Each structure stands twice: as structure tokens, then as C-alpha cells.
Inverse folding.
């Protein structure tokens, strides 16, 4: 029995189409080797002798949904770190959220693809720095159960802290790991959400700001448009969407207007 | 993709459309909309103005002269007139008589953006204008217009003494890609004020004739110039590789002209270089091919991805991947460095110890890579270390370790595997049983039989999967027994395994009964196995599975129909290919291809026209198994779906018959700029030369260039001989294209061919190209 199952172009085509249909993740033929590397062991463990058999399992079997979520874990690169693209988060806290709190509001912020939690924890840290932590409702979600487990556990390797020369007070070294402050982690409502799931997103309610950074790189343009449209609907009027520095929604044409504040870009939902 | 503009923007866009229909009277209202906050609205205003009639365009020209208080409006007028119809040209030319330098600048810019060649002479005169802005605008406009006269003027300006004329001329000469600008640029490389800009321009021209001057500049100039010159050398190399493939002479030419001190200078310059410059400098070090560079490349291993990749390439070129410094970097490096380095070290004998160290890396991907590397390197001594990974928490690592052990064999493997199969660790026992059954050790049968009694389903799976390989008469009976197991998964594994053993009366009964099993996977594997064993008597029962409630069972039924011999199975397969169920259709098309029966050809032709791209994709692969299907593959090569196109092209490219080459050539004649088609033809280029040369004999310029790009990619003497034939062709387009290729090869043979043609060819352009290459 081979330790690696072959993936023909034909099976790759239908497998990648299925992954895109169910998870929104788009992999073109350049990623065939990645799919083999990540999925072949899973197929073997499930007892399959061919990737076609594995495809039929994902396509037809009742147990496929759990396996698809495991695939999402395996295929997405959870490459993030604390205070990544921090300027954008700072402007969000110091300009938008501070202003809403001053008006007596309790803003809601959603980190929509939080991966292993560095981003929402960074946001919580900035809020805490401005003594606003208890005055903002923070929701963080990801499609990957494994990533959420890491986020809740709060223990990180060296790559998560590569932006620091010295650790801030909310991160402490324990052996070879770095641990995020339990107080910050506990201030976040962690959820497992698939961005393709309209109902699940609706159930979260409306937000004043949504952060969805460095996840749409995995989507085809059509999927990105659909996701952005859902996020637009999940914002209150005058709300803001934050995307990654290398992601631009301008080429797609959306209902947002793009604003620049102190060097950071935001997508603004109109007031009406 | 439609713009999803806000409601406010949509209103503005509707207003722009309305005003566009009004004509010249609406010009001022449209211009007012250039202050709108939406970029989309502003661009639509410009586009609307540019579509105006002659009266509107005349009004725009008038406003360009008389209403100059608002910069955004001026910019909008210039943009609109730059993209307007030909009516605009005489109107704009009329502005060249104006006194106001600002108006002149705008008029000149418009003519340049319109590439209005008829204005070139007037614009040349403006390059001497007393106002530097006007002169600069004229220089830039000439650069856009191009052509012999414009380039002549730019060369003459570059030879002058006015900085505000020379500097912009240098940049534009570079963008002109005219090799005859190289002599003046070569002189400017020696002038500190212009050297850096001249180096960039030489790079942009992309001619091999510029390499010597750049190398000289690197040797004699300051470090900043050295870095820019390196970038330019890489630009020339990239252009050459794009044009003629890897046979480019840039690296050879660099070595021919480089002095001994250049290597050290390049290595030192890396200390202050940014990432792009470091990559360029690293590439020069690779070309210089000096083993002193090993330490520089080792130091670069820890850099950004592109730098690290270049360093690995450099070490490979120097045959230094086994260098102790590299192995120390691997042994002590980060997971990221190890992940980059390991694939290149596969097969490097000296890397064994350092690779074994990677088996304990914190990253599972690195541990798996190390397993693959040890297997590729035939490192049998690593087998004991690989066995330790059978308890790894990561499945990918375990399977990689199993695969490596299976690949390596070794005298110790049996004992280690027999010990591991008794382990308290379940994962280790499973992995060990895979290894034992793979090698078929004496103890295999007993261990498999024992595993069949295990509480662990996966152990039973592995045992059942391993039994068919054991040459024992009891196997079919054991499998038949397991096919009645209480666990559905075990029954499924047994039924699947029965498909791998010779047909046996017991197994046939079991498989036919399994077609009615309550579990869909049992039915699935029953269909597969019956098909593999060719049990025709089961055909009616298999056909019934085409209506199974479980999708995967239907697929397996189709697969079985494809495998079963006889007319009845073939007819059933053809019917399945016409099913309303797309998945059934697709599976049937795959089966039809595997069967490769001429009676199924029409089925496949119909599938090629399916509205479903995945069916067309499998139909392409299937039809390729039939002879005489080049035209169908050619049609699929322009399919709307990229995967279908790619598959069809790949199949055509791999065929060396004249008909397939003919299809590719006809496609290339329609799309001579397509690098994909060039690559497809180049794949088996030597077998296509006889078909290419007749087409070249009558090709136009663009097709000739493409065909010469194909021929240049041949690694053989036949390809070189074909280049010579092309260079001697009566077709001037062929000779011009061949001259360009030879100018990028520039070996001794190419030089003598170019020298003969520089004096003797009947075409002035061929003579010019040859002379420029030899300058």
C-alpha cells in the first residue's frame, strides 16, 4: 500500500471544485502538489486507496462535513502574528471605536477570520491600552476548529511574536512558548463560522466594524464578492470593514467607499 | 463583472450618460462632474467626453487654452483628448502654435499619448524649446511615438550637454528597446552624473550587446552603480530567456568580460543591497561560477524566500550542496530554512546526518520532508530513525516515514517492524503492519489473521489490504469470511481486497451478495471488484446499481461497466454516458476513455460538447486515446475553461505526429503572442522541425518571431541547423526573426552569421539588427 496517493489532473479538477463549493477555498492547478501533500495522508487514514475514492467520500458520504472542516484546517496557512498590520487596528481603536464609545454606544467588532487568535487578542490589547476593553464587544471566528483551539489555549510559538523585540506585558514567556493574557482571551467571544454560511453570519447580528484580513486571498473573485456582500449586510450603517493591506476590493466594485485614515485603508458602509 | 456602485454614484453615472447624449452644450456640466468623489464617475466623464463629436472636441481644445484655473479639469481635458477619435488630431496640432508653454505641454502630451507619428518632426523641434517643461514634454512624447526618427532624435539629445535633455532621453532610449542606442548609453555609463540611469536603460533594451558595458561599469564604478547594473543584467537575462529559452548567452558573456576582482566586489555589495538587488547580485555570482561564493550563498540561506531560493540554486550550480557549511546550516537551522533546503538535498550523500537531525524538527512538514529526502537519498542507515516516527502525532509524518521505510528496505527493517507491531502504541502497530504486509515477510499472514481479530477497525483494514499480496491459497476464503463482518468498514475493506485476488467461486458469491449490502461503501467496492475481476455474469446486478440511492455506488457501477468485457457492458456504458446525472455521465466518459473502444468514440465526441466543464475535461483525456483526434483536441484547446484548454494543449504538445503539430501551428498563426503555444510547440521541437520550416517560409513578422522562439528552444544540433535555415530563408520575416534570436545567442557561429548578413543581406532591417547585435 503506497504512502502517497496519486492525484490525476481530472481528479484534481473535481476535488478542487468540490472544496471550493463547500469551503470557498480556491486552488488552481499550481496547488496540485499541496493537495496531494495535505490530503493523501487523510485519505489513507480513512482507509481509501485512491484519491477518487476519497473524492466520492467527500461528495456523497454523510460523514463528509467533518472531514471537510478538517481539510480546511489542513489547507489554510494560519500564518499570522501579534500586531500584524497594527496601524489599521490602532486607527480603528483610537478613531472609530473611541468616538462611538464617547457617544454612549457599546460597539461590536467581529474578527471574521481570526485563525489562531493573534488578531483579536492584539485588538483586545490595544483596547486595554486605551482602557476600553470592557466597553467593546469582541467576537472572533474562524472555520478551523483546530485554529480556534489554539486561540482559546493562548499558547504560541516564536513566529507569532516575531514583531516584538521585547514582549509586551500581555504576553509572557513560558519555556519555549509565549502565552497570551487570559484576561484578554476571555474578553473575546470565540465562534466557529464559515464565511459562506449566510445564516450563521446573520445570527451573529450587526457590527460596527468587521475585520476580515488576509483570508480572501484564498477565494475566487466571485466568492470574494459574495462574502463581502454578506459582511456589508452584517455591518450597521456607517460601519467599517477592514481587509488586509495586500487585498483591494476596488477592482471588484462593491457598495463600500474606500477611505484612508492615517495611512490605513478602510471600507466604509454608507450612513443610509 | 458589473460595478456595484453606491446609490449616489449610480445617480451620478446616469446623469453622465444623459449629458453625453446632449452634445457640446453639456461639456461644462460634464467637466463639473470631474470634482465628484467617485473615481468611477470621473473616469466615465472622461470616457464620455472622449466620445464627443468634432464640435465637442473643438470645445475641449478651446477650454484647454482659455479655462486653465482648475487642475483636475485640465487633466480631464487632456485625458479625454488623448483617447478621443481621430477628429482630435488636427485640432490638437493647431494648439502647437500657441505661445503659452503650459498649453504647449498639454498639446504635446496629448499627441504623444495618441502616438501621433505625423507630429514627430514638429515634436523633435520642440525638444530644443527654451522652456525646459516644453522640451521635456516633447522628449517624452517622442518616446511614446517611437520609430526611427524619434529614436534618432533621442540619441542625438543623449549626446548633448544639457542635463534636462540628456536625462529624460536616456530613460526613453531604454524603453525604446533599440539596440542602436547602446553606443551612446555605453559612453554615458562612464559619466557619474548619468551612469546609473544609463545602466537602467541598457537593461531595459534587453540586448546582449549591452552586457559587456554593464560588466565594465560594475568593475570600475561605485557600489551603487554595481547594484543597478546587476539588476540590468538580470533584466537582459530575463528578456533573453523569455525570447529564446534557457540557451541565452548572458551568463557566458558576463564570464567572458569579468575580471578577477569582480566577484569579491559583488559579494561585498550584498551587504547594503535590498532584496531585489541581493537576488540580482546573487545571480551574477552564480554566473561568475566561483567557488569562493559558497560562503556568500550559505549566508543568504536564511534570507527572504526569493533570496534563499537563489542561494540554493547558487550552491547547486557550484555543486556545493554537500558542503559542510551548508550541512551545518541545515542541522542547526530554523524550520523554515530546513523546509527550503531539504528538497534540494535529496540524493546528496553527505547530507544524511544533517537530514536525520531534521526528523525531530518541531514542524511536521519538515519531518515529512526529511523522510522523503532520506528515501530519495537511499539512506538505508536512517531506517531505525524513521521507525521512531511511527509514533508521530502528525499523520502526514507517519505516512512519510512508512513510505520511506518501504522505499529503503534494509536488513534491519523486518526485525524493527516485527517489534513495532507489538508496540503499546496503536498508531505504531498500524504503521508496522503496513510495512510488514508491504514486504510480505514470513510472519505477514499470521499477523494479518491476528489483526483481523483486533478491536481496531484500521488494523483490520490494513490487514485486509495486505492479504492479497500474500501468495497463500487461504486468502480468498479469509477475505470472504471478513466480508460478513459486523463492521461495515471491515466488510468494505474485505470486498475491496477481493478485487485484488484471482477470481474464486467463493469470492464471486460474496461479491454478488455484497451488491445488496446495507452499507453503501460495501456496495461501492463490490461493484469495483466485480469489474476488476471481469465477472460478466454480474452485469445485470451492476446495472441495477446505476439507480442506487448512494451516489458513490452509482459511480462504482459505471466504473465496473467500463471494466467488464463484452457488448452488453459496452452498451450499458454508452447509455450511462447519456445519463441526466452529471456525475454518472462523467464517470462513464472516463470509463469510455479507458475502454478505448471505437464504438464509444461518438459518446466522447458528444461529451466534448457538454455544458459541464469537468465532463469536457475528462472527455479530452479520454478522446486523446483515439487516433486521429487532433482537430478535436485543437477545438478543446480554445475551450472556455482553463483546465480543459490546458489539458488539451498538454496532450497535443506531447504528440509528435505531423497532424498534432499542424494543429498547434495553426493555433499559433492565430495567436503568435501566446507563450503557452510557444511552450507547447517547443516541447518536442526536434520532431516538429520538418513541419515548422515550411510554415516559416511564408510567415508574417509576428508568426516568424514565435516560430523562431520555438526553434531556439531546441537543445540539439538539429534545432541550430533549423535556425540557420531560417536565417537563409527567402522570407524576410524569417530572417529578421532569426537575426533577433542569433543576437541573443551570440556564440561564435552566430557572430559569423550575423557579420555576413550585416553586410550582405538584401533587407535593410536585417542588416540593422545584425550590426546592432555586433556593435
Amino acid at each position: 500500500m503506497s504512502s502517497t496517493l496519486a492525484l490525476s489532473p481530472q481528479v484534481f479538477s473535481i476535488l478542487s471544485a468540490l472544496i471550493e463549493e463547500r469551503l470557498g477555498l480556491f486552488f488552481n492547478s499550481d496547488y496540485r502538489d499541496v493537495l496531494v501533500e495535505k490530503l493523501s495522508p487523510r485519505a489513507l487514514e480513512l482507509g481509501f486507496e485512491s484519491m477518487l475514492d476519497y473524492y466520492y467520500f467527500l461528495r456523497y458520504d454523510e460523514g463528509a462535513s467533518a472531514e471537510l472542516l478538517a481539510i480546511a484546517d489542513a489547507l489554510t496557512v494560519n500564518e499570522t502574528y501579534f500586531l500584524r498590520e497594527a496601524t489599521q487596528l490602532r486607527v480603528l481603536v483610537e478613531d472609530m471605536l473611541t468616538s462611538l464609545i464617547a457617544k454612549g454606544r457599546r460597539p461590536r467588532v467581529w474578527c471574521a477570520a481570526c485563525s489562531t487568535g493573534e488578531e483579536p487578542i492584539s485588538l483586545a490589547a490595544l483596547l486595554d491600552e486605551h482602557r476600553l476593553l470592557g466597553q467593546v464587544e469582541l467576537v472572533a471566528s474562524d472555520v478551523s476548529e483546530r485554529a480556534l483551539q489554539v486561540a482559546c489555549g493562548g499558547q504560541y510559538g516564536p513566529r507569532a511574536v516575531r514583531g516584538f523585540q521585547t514582549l509586551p506585558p500581555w504576553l509572557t514567556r513560558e519555556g519555549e512558548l509565549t502565552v497570551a493574557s487570559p484576561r484578554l482571551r476571555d474578553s473575546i467571544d470565540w465562534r466557529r463560522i464559515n464565511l459562506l454560511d449566510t445564516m450563521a453570519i446573520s445570527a451573529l447580528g450587526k457590527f460596527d466594524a468587521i475585520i476580515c484580513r488576509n483570508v480572501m486571498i484564498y477565494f475566487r473573485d466571485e466568492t470574494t464578492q459574495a462574502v463581502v456582500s454578506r459582511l456589508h449586510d452584517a455591518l450597521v450603517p456607517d460601519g467599517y470593514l477592514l481587509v488586509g493591506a495586500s487585498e483591494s476590493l476596488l477592482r471588484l466594485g462593491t457598495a463600500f467607499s474606500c477611505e484612508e485614515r492615517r495611512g490605513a485603508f478602510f471600507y466604509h458602509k454608507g450612513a443610509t | 463583472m458589473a460595478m456595484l456602485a453606491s446609490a449616489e454614484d449610480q445617480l451620478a453615472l446616469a446623469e453622465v450618460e444623459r449629458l453625453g447624449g446632449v452634445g457640446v452644450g453639456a461639456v461644462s456640466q460634464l467637466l463639473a462632474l470631474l470634482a465628484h468623489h467617485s473615481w468611477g464617475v470621473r473616469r466615465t466623464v472622461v470616457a464620455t467626453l472622449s466620445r464627443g463629436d468634432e464640435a465637442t472636441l473643438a470645445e475641449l481644445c478651446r477650454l484647454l487654452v482659455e479655462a486653465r484655473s482648475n487642475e483636475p479639469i485640465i487633466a480631464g481635458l487632456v485625458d479625454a483628448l488623448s483617447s478621443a477619435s481621430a477628429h482630435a488630431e488636427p485640432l490638437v496640432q493647431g494648439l502647437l502654435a500657441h505661445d503659452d508653454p503650459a498649453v504647449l505641454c498639454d498639446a504635446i502630451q496629448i499627441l504623444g499619448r495618441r502616438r501621433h507619428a505625423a507630429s514627430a518632426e514638429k515634436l523633435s523641434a520642440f525638444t530644443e524649446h527654451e522652456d525646459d517643461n516644453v522640451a521635456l514634454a516633447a522628449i517624452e512624447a517622442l518616446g511614446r511615438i517611437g520609430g526611427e526618427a524619434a529614436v534618432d532624435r533621442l540619441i542625438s539629445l543623449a549626446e548633448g550637454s544639457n542635463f534636462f535633455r540628456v536625462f529624460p532621453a536616456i530613460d526613453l532610449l531604454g524603453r525604446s528597446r533599440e539596440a542602436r542606442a547602446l553606443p551612446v548609453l555605453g559612453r554615458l555609463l562612464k559619466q557619474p552624473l548619468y551612469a546609473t540611469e544609463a545602466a537602467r536603460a541598457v537593461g531595459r533594451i534587453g540586448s546582449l550587446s549591452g552586457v559587456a558595458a554593464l560588466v565594465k561599469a560594475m568593475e570600475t564604478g561605485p557600489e551603487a552603480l554595481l547594484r543597478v547594473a546587476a539588476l540590468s543584467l538580470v533584466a537582459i537575462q530575463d528578456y533573453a530567456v523569455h525570447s529564446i529559452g534557457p540557451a541565452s548567452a548572458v551568463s557566458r558573456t558576463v564570464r567572458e568580460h569579468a575580471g578577477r576582482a569582480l566577484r569579491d566586489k559583488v559579494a561585498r555589495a550584498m551587504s547594503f543591497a535590498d532584496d531585489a538587488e541581493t537576488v540580482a547580485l546573487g545571480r551574477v555570482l552564480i554566473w561568475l561560477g566561483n567557488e569562493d561564493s559558497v560562503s556568500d550563498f550559505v549566508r543568504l540561506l536564511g534570507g527572504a524566500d526569493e533570496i534563499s531560493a537563489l542561494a540554493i540554486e547558487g550552491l547547486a550550480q557550484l555543486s556545493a550542496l554537500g558542503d559542510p557549511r551548508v550541512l551545518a546550516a541545515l542541522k542547526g537551522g530554523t524550520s523554515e530554512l530546513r523546509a527550503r533546503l531539504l528538497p534540494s538535498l535529496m540524493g546528496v550523500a553527505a547530507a544524511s546526518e544533517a537530514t536525520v537531525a531534521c526528523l525531530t524538527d518541531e514542524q511536521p512538514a519538515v519531518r515529512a520532508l526529511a523522510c522523503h529526502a532520506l528515501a530519495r537519498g537511499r539512506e538505508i542507515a536512517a531506517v531505525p530513525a524513521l521507525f521512531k516516527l511511527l509514533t508521530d502525532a502528525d499523520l502526514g509524518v507517519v505516512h512519510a516515514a512508512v513510505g520511506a521505510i518501504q522505499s529503503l528496505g534494509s536488513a534491519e527493517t523486518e526485525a524493527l517492524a516485527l517489534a513495532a507491531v507489538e508496540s503499546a502504541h496503536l498508531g505504531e502497530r498500524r504503521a508496522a503492519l503496513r510495512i510488514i504486509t508491504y514486504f510480505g515477510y514470513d510472519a505477514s499472514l499470521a499477523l494479518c489473521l491476528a489483526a483481523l481479530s483486533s478491536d481496531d477497525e484500521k488494523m483490520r483494514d490494513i490487514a485486509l489490504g495486505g492479504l492479497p499480496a500474500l501468495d497463500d491459497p487461504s486468502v480468498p476464503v479469509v477475505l470472504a469470511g471478513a466480508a460478513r463482518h459486523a463492521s461495515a468498514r471491515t466488510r468494505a475493506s474485505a470486498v475491496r481486497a477481493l478485487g485484488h485476488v484471482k477470481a474464486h467461486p467463493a469470492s464471486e458469491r460474496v461479491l454478488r451478495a455484497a451488491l445488496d449490502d446495507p452499507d453503501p461503501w460495501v456496495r461501492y467496492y463490490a461493484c469495483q471488484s466485480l469489474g476488476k475481476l471481469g465477472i460478466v455474469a454480474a452485469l445485470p446486478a451492476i446495472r441495477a446499481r446505476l439507480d442506487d440511492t448512494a451516489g458513490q455506488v452509482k459511480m462504482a457501477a459505471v466504473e465496473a461497466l467500463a471494466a467488464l468485457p463484452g457488448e452488453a457492458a459496452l452498451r450499458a456504458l454508452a447509455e450511462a454516458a447519456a445519463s441526466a446525472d452529471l456525475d454518472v455521465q462523467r464517470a462513464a466518459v472516463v470509463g469510455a476513455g479507458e475502454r478505448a473502444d471505437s464504438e464509444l468514440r461518438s459518446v466522447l465526441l458528444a461529451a466534448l460538447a457538454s455544458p459541464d466543464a469537468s465532463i469536457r475535461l475528462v472527455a479530452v483525456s479520454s478522446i486523446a486515446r483515439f487516433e486521429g483526434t487532433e482537430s478535436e483536441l485543437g477545438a478543446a484547446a480554445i475551450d472556455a475553461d482553463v483546465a480543459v484548454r490546458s489539458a488539451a494543449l498538454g496532450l497535443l504538445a506531447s504528440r509528435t505526429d505531423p497532424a498534432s503539430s499542424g494543429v498547434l501551428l495553426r493555433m499559433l498563426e492565430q495567436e503568435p503572442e501566446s507563450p503557452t503555444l510557444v511552450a507547447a510547440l517547443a516541447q518536442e521541437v526536434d520532431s516538429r522541425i520538418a513541419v515548422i520550416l515550411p510554415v516559416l517560409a511564408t510567415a508574417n513578422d509576428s508568426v516568424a518571431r514565435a516560430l523562431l522562439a520555438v526553434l531556439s528552444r531546441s537543445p540539439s544540433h538539429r534545432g541550430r541547423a533549423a535556425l540557420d535555415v531560417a536565417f537563409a530563408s527567402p522570407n524576410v520575416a524569417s530572417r529578421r526573426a532569426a537575426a533577433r534570436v542569433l543576437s541573443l545567442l551570440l556564440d561564435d557561429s552566430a557572430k559569423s552569421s550575423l557579420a555576413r548578413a550585416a553586410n550582405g543581406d538584401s533587407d535593410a532591417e536585417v542588416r540593422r539588427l545584425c550590426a546592432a547585435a555586433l556593435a
Notes: The mean pLDDT of chain A is 89. Strands of chain A lie at 108-111, 137-142, 155-156, 171-174, 177-180, 188-192, 207-211, 235-242, 257-261, 264-268.
